[in-house]
TrEMBL record:
It holds the Pfam family Methyltransf_11. This is Methyltransferase domain-containing protein. Residues 46-137 form the Methyltransferase type domain. SUPFAM superfamilies: S-adenosyl-L-methionine-dependent methyltransferases. Keywords: Methyltransferase, Transferase. It comes from Candidatus Limivivens intestinipullorum. The keyword Methyltransferase applies. The lineage of its organism: Bacteria, Bacillati, Bacillota, Clostridia, Lachnospirales. GO terms for biological process: methylation.
Amino acid sequence: MKIDGGKPFDWGRTSADYAKFRDIYPREFYERIIRLGLCVRGQHVLDIGTGTGVLPRNLYPYGAKWTGTDLSENQIAQARALSAGMDIDYYVIPTEALDFPEGSFDVITACQCFWYFRHDEVMPRLARMLKSGGRLLLLYMAWLPFEDKIAGASEKLVLKYSPQWSGAGETVHPIRIPAVYNEQFTLVHHEEYLLNVPFTRETWHGRMRTCRGIGASLSKEEIARWEAEHRKLLEEIAPEAFTVLHYGAIAELKKKK
């Protein structure tokens, strides 16, 4: 998939906002992972594309030993700061360059990042680093612009400033898994479910600013113009506190050998 028509983006530019506004997964999102018996005590888990460490930090109380990797130094710096006092290892490494020893992990997680990878390179690395029967857990959450008025209006404004942004128009669907994973993995579970995620005008504005089509790709001047227009929009259409309809999706893959 060609993301945003090839328009460059850099998540490192959004790291401070990302740390503040992207830790939004509700309790049910995490409970569904735990009910699968994954990311719990006795397991060593690698979170690829960890960003600011949202997944390791929120699942840390369940006892797994976590390692997080990301290609952005800024994101990892935020992850380390936010994980102070937690025994979580973070490394600045692109997923395509991961080289932990064979059989290092019981579970590898990828939350909100799976489509960014070069899968022909990544899949064999993930399989090698997993133990026999280990799990690859793919996680995703997105707002639903056609069902939720506020989400739809905010998304339309993002497209005004970033017409090539390919993150728009989400509908509920299973996580798409490239065929190359069939060589070494079996899909053993998937589910898709609805979530009402709480926001205020300020936190929703921050969440939208951190989306790829705004904070990670626009100039400072463009972001400032978008911000003024988006704040005005929210004053017109949104109460001070509200929920936005999202859906969550899980795909659990088991290593074949």
